[in-house]
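Model it.
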Amino acid sequence: MKTTAIVLAAGRSTRMNSKKPKVLHHLLGRPMAFYALEAAQQATGEKPVAIIGHEAEMVRQALGEKAETVIQEPQLGTGHAVRQAEPLLKERSEYILVTTADMPLLTGGTLQQLVQAQQAHNGPMTLLIATTDEARGFGRVTRDADGRIQAIIEEAHATPQQLAIRELNTSVYCFTAEWLWQALPRIPLSPKGEYYLTDLVGIAVADGLSIQTIDIQEPGETIGINTRLHLAEAEAFLRQRINRGWMLAGVTIIDPPSTYIEPGVSIGQDTVLWPNTYLQGNSSIGEDCTIGPNAIIRDTQIGNGCRVLASVLERAVVEDRVDIGPFGHLRKGAHLGADVHMGNFGEVKNSYLGAGSKVGHFSYIGDATIGTNVNIGAGTITCNFDGKQKHHTDIGADVFIGSDTMLVAPVKIGEGARTGAGSVVTKNLPEYTLAVGMPARAIRKLERSD
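Modeled.
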């Protein structure tokens, strides 16, 4: 029985006080709409349909392949929004799940329970309700003496007695598609000139049809985002959910409130995350690592047994047992082989460092290939940019680069060579050769034992 989700995403950012469409505001590094779309697809197994309106082209580009899009113009309420998807879905699906992009904490599991409840129900609709004292502006569910739903009363129109009702309509529904398409045109026009999905409850009741509800298990999933205060509240809840999941999976988080882990991150068993650690994008952390405090890891792959202290790693690859920091910086294209040590205030960009190599503090390595067991002395610079083009530096295995050496690219340093402190290397240096000076001159050959 095919089910397709409609995700309502046409609203403005009036209360967000923003030029950006509300559904594109970020939640843990991703637009909030992404969470709603992914949960909808998990629940149905089908690509969802997003109803867009305000800044439609910007929203469509941001959503990309995550959803089919339908424009609601003008925007005349939730009932009108769902009706815009009828030409696309009328002959496609037997059930329609309706959710909203500004409730990004709803999980695929919760929505799937809603769909399954409707598929097992002989009535036309099932509502997702929250039973809680925290109303969050939701309408109240009213029932008759036998417990049958009679209506949804919007908070603005509720009497004091109705406001005391703890059963709240979350505005998430699953419908039998055949009934939905014939019922939508029957929704009355509100005094505000809009058509509301909640009126479908009254239509079903008037037709003598059964309406079913399921109660959400975690009311925090229903946090809706209308202001930046709500955005911060939702982010705190999402961070707590993600951090709890990783701790249950075997990751130690010393101070969860100060640890930020985005949804695309993976972390190995027995890794320890210290306070003020940010794991972002598509980063992966291996087993038995120590990350932080004060580390930012973005779109970076880190192997097993690594230590990263107070450093920034961006779009880099770090193999096993690497030690970085404090205050190291790996930029795009940095690749550190196994057992590399990178001292404090070191920076590596678009370079490969072979296994066992060491980069001293206050060094910059850019556009370079460095062999195994190389020692880069403190203050070493690869001068890779001549003002117009980038040039490459190639350093062989077992090289010793003295402190404050400048390697003026393009240049090659042969295996086993050494430079004296303060050297400025402008020409290729043969293997097992010692060079010193400004500019550096080869002064003697070295024995392999040296």
